[in-house]
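no rush on this but wanted to send it before i forget. theres a chain ive been looking at and ive put its sequence and its fold in token form underneath. i want to understand how the tokens follow from the sequence so walk me through it. thanks a lot i owe you, the record is right below:
>
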Amino acid sequence: MTKLLVTGAAGQLGRAVLTHLLETSKVAAGDIVAASRDTAKLADVAAKGVETRKADFTDEASLAAAFAGIDRVLIISTDDLVTPGGRLAQHKAAVAAAAKAGVKHILYTSMPNPDKSLVSFAPDHLGTEEAIKATGIPYTIIRNAWYDDNYLMSMPHNLAGGKWFTAMGAGKVSNISRDDCARGAAAALANPPAGSKTLTLTGPQSLDATEIAALFSKAAGKPLEVVPVTDEQLAQGMTAAGLPDFLVKMLVSADANVRAGNFDLVTNDYESLTGTKPQTLEAYLSTRKAALAG
């Protein structure tokens, strides 16, 4: 029996990975371990026969207990974007615990081009990738493109006002849905590529702001004008709207990364892992019309 561990299992990506392990990859519930800081949030998963364990990336003892007897672990990046250096420290602790526990294969959710990305949290991913490689353990690094889902934070507001203020410029981005990323991660965890691989999961096409706006306008049935702004203007607007500083920096840096061309790539890695094509942004939006209506 091969034991598979998913960290961050109570989060949105983690829960979707568990669903795809059970339903798409057809992994037996008894072969899966779901780990979280709060196992009470996994009661429904436990009811399906999945073992649950506490895993706090700031607690070495809990990591040691969580990783004991595990053959493959999927380390899902944590959500600590506020504490400088905190996220990378957490990831390194998890990687060290996996190595100490004798895990045979490490999988990790990263981002495209972390070595040259302008996104504020890119150093966390690059540092984690380097830590994994340093263990000498076979690995699969899964670099997820910018989620379709991320647009839902701001697009309902943009559609209500009819304007999308963006600093993307003429850059393009190949968005992919969170659920597709989860399906890809589940497939890799259930049947990892031989040796060590770095894969980049993207959508089927790379689009610029005008093309993206047209898809949102069509899905919502509302006009949406793209209004180009500078990084500074975008930051000022978000700050005035009350967004916290770390989130402003992240979103502005993401637009700058698109503008620099670092998100403009399309691969077939998702199809290679799953045997299916990733969902288009248009198809994704067709299922989110209620959310777009605000």
Notes: Residues 86-101 form the longest helix (16 residues). The chain has 13 helices and eleven strands. The two ends are 47 Å apart (CA to CA).
